[in-house]
Amino acid sequence: MIKNTLLGIALLGLLSSCDKDDAPVETAKVNVIHASPDAPGVDLLVDNNKVNTSALTFPNATGYLTVNAGTRNIKVNAAGTTTTVINADLPFTKDKSYSVYAFKRLASIGAFMVEDNLATPASGQAHIRFFHLSPDAPAVTVGTLAGGTFSPVFSNRAFETQATATTNQGFTPVPAGTYTFDVRVAGTSVLNVPGVALAAGKIYTVFAKGLVAGTGAQALGAQIVTHN
User: CA-CA distance, 15 to 19, in Å (whole number)?
Assistant: First the structure.
């Protein structure tokens, strides 16, 4: 009887162990965007495991990567080196999606994280949001131009911090269509971006990139991230 009892306990322990092993892993998704205009290409490490196959360069994005839910250590290294320029422990909730932006100039490079609401837009609509990530640009207003009429969409946006990015992380519904976006400082246009197609059912982030005083790849401009 004692032998059978011990065998039963052992089997129970084995079954319990199997149940734990078979439990589904809780995951989240994260998209990392390189928005630091003078930083070189970078590697992305999650819990010290490199997750990109080629260097992530300004102003590109990784696309959504699957990570285990919970607090994950995120490192951004200069590509091909062990030189870490960003090291942060970030919380990821299961089944949610996030964007992490590497931003500011290289000398003071940092990161902020926002939650991405990827709920499907209503019929005929697209979703859009805007982040100001040009380090030397003053506060801007972003809107659309139709003929000579300027319609503000995102007003008086200063260079982002984690706090403002969290406030601005929500998406704004707009009718699908092709737009001319205009970026204005104190009422004066500083950047005009024609022919921006926003498709029905799609979700976008537009961010101001580069430097007012920049040239070439570092010139002031706008970048679009498509989330779905």
Answer: 6
